[in-house]
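Handout, page 2. Input:
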Amino acid sequence: MKYLGLHDTLTGLYNRTFFEEEMLRLQEKRDMRVGMLVCDIDGLKLVNDTLGHEAGDRLLISAAGIIKECFRLGDMVARIGGDEFAVLLPDCDESVVDLASLRIKEEVEKYNAAGAVPPLSMSIGFAVSGKTKDNLGEVFKEADNNMYREKLHSGQSARSAIVQTLMKALEARDYLTEGHADRLQELVEELASAIGLPERGLADLRLLAKFHDIGKVGIPDRILFKEAPLTADEYSEMKRHSEIGHRIAQSNPDLSPIAGWILKHHEWWNGQGYPQGLKGDAIPLECRILAIADAYDAMTNDRPYHRALSREEAVAEIKRCAGSQFDPDLVRVFLQVIQYRF
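Output:
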């Protein structure tokens, strides 16, 4: 029980309670300089929101292992918050803490170079007690402020790195759909051109075609590639991918212009879609274009859960769903586009 009271159950490091007790103990040794280093995991909320808390926990455990390996036996490493770690270094000066900070950064680079998904990024700040600041509470505050100053510079780039990794993961999964994203970009561009969508809008539409399903990186493979029909619970989990994708896109400057479309790309013309139940023209035009092209391509190519339909069968299904799932006016144009393709 005493161990549990002083240690973090996830990482095995000391917890905040013990960290504060040790800080008070070292405060009594006024003739000793004490270093303090604070680390914060960049982008942990994004990882939790997109890949799930299990992925976030694995990232925390990896970070804890890296930090612990970078310090001396007498140094005390603790997890003091959800995404924050702190280290107490008795009897040291600035050069010792600075070297420890560099070691952490080098080990993080090695960890990421090995292909870690998601990548790890840490903002680090440190301070050392001395004649002008012997109160360790003030030393901690200075280290924490230095960490947040670094986080202001690295936070966005860290989130972008996570999103880039997720985008690569989505592209790696595309081998199972045999170039679905490439075919879809061609289809949406042809339909958009046929209705006179301005050229300036085509670039974002192509981006939507490529990354509308980026949220599926947060859906377990057992659901994503299941050959049998999904259960009600599995379907509910699958539907989360549009919201997960929305959060991912909001965190990346390249995808943020299409974040709202990613959220709404499964809305139905009759209001029976998800996640917001939008209806008719309340659904963005780009999402209505994508919905038709995406359904047609999915039907005419093999998927884990069905064999490809013929072109005639897919066209019949698109016609059947005009006015319910799909914008009927766009369906009429799409059928003309498909006719000229063959």
